[in-house]
Design brief:
The complex is a heterodimer of chains A (about 280) and B (about 280). By secondary structure, chain A is of the alpha/beta class. Chain A has helices at about 75-80, 110-115, 130-140, 150-160, 165, 180-190, 210-225, 235-240, 260-265, 270-275; strands at about 35-45, 50-60, 65-70, 90-100, 105, 115-120, 200, 230, 245-250, 255-260. Chain B is flat. The termini of chain B are far apart. Classes of the chains: A alpha/beta (about 280), B mainly alpha (about 280). At the A-B interface, helix 2, helix 3 and helix 6 of A face helix 7 and helix 8 of B.
Chain lengths: ~280, ~280
Amino acid sequence: MQTSQAQSVEFRTTVPEAGPGGTGLESGVRDLGGNKLRTRQLRAFFGKAEVLRGIDLEFPEKKVTAIIGPSGCGKSTFIRCLNRMHEVVPGATCLGEALLDGKDIFRMDPVRLRREVGMVFQKPNPFPTMSIRDNVLAGLRLNGISVPDPDALVEKSLRQVAMWDEVKDSLGRSGMSLSGGQQQRLCIARTIAMQPKVILMDEPCSALDPIATARVEELIHELRDSYTIVIVTHNMQQAARVAHFTAFFYMGELVERGETKEIFTRPSQQRTEDYITGRFG
Amino acid sequence: MRANIRVRGLIDRAVTWLCVLATALAVVPLFSVLYYVAARGLGGVNLAFFTELPAPVGEVGGGAANAIVGSLQLVGLACLIGIPPGILAGVYLAEYGNSALGKLVRFSADVMAGVPSITVGLFVYAIVVLQTGHFSAYAGGLSLAIIMLPTVTRTTEELLRLVPEALREAALGLGVSKWRTTISILLRTALPGVATGVMLAIARVFGETAPLLFTSFSNRYWAESLNEPTASLPVQIFTYAVSPYEDWHRQAWAAALLLVVFVLLLNVSARLLVRPRV
């Protein structure tokens, strides 16, 4: 994205500098094997409590990877490490390495990183003071990135989330006037307007009804040709429906990761099988 | 058993009526003040009151044009001096308020909010009036600003804290820097509430008399600049009310009515501001 030139002044008062950094491994471009993003021994803490105990996971480019696991297994914390939102919480820290296109994200400016690794949250959170149109443009506008043709970008982003026909006549209305499902798709439109490399979704459908959920899932199907997507979900059917790969987390550890079909039909670990067959969690 | 229920019913009704009575007692002073001020003040309100300078002592007539403009100048100055640091301090408290400095600032603001306004006036008298050697609108504006400051600070902080965390995350998640998130999302979302707090603070200082007595003092003519003694409605009311002239009493009531109307308007617009918009 050729946007950094148009940037206004960059204030780095945001999140502490590079963070705890790598594990001593040299960082730099390395052989990726088609992986957009990978983590090595990623650990996360809230204060002294270790909630992620060394996760090695890779995310192939333009594929959907689902992360499943019982509540409190660290799956949300994990994806919040991937755009460094975890560190925003007071007392929260990360250790280990996460490579985006071979570059360690903990050595990047977190503000810059988050433009490349977008995030969709559990509850739809459009900006209440902005219109639908301004919500779509919010990421660019607030970052001082000049948009050559904002109308085209708004239309393109809203078309990508299959909302254009629903809202094209009411772009000036408040984002809060939409239904929950529409709000969530608006948030996705806002994220993809930034043209991120990776989209993280933290239980994007858990606040939505089944119809709205189906539409967001359709949307993920559409987006997976163009974006690398990581989705955290409580809903195993959802993982089975949308994801190429599925990773099962339990108690802050990665139990196993594989092709979705494999995980749901022939898991190699007993704990995975117990979870997906509903014996616990 | 039956008698017991009758007693309960009686107690219930008695307590209800006690509450009604207490409410009425609380409202009576408010309405009698409003009524009395309106009844006594309306007689003094005429075109001359708004357009003319006070008449020379002993003559009937004249107005309070200089006091009206002076009050607006003083409050305007107070806003310019008091609101920006107040809002910024509020942002600081909301964002970093849990640090030792944050706690100190919050505590000081709370203490300052309780300092009698005459003390603030005395302070400004000492550091401005005695230093410059004369009364001025600047000194008056500064004392009003100091009175506004803690209210604005604490209101801003409280309202920023009410903005859902989800919005902060949404903005940070889009790669928006922290300062930009604070200004463009958090403060923007809290703006109607912050504006309300500011207007209530303005309403409060509008009627302040004590700190103006020895900072802006008063003036029977137009002040040539902000660096001169300046008339204001509250001080005018004070001066006229304790005077022996009937016509001045009439004008004092008119000025009081005007002050009440100003404060009422500010309060009503503050309420309109926070009403949810469609």
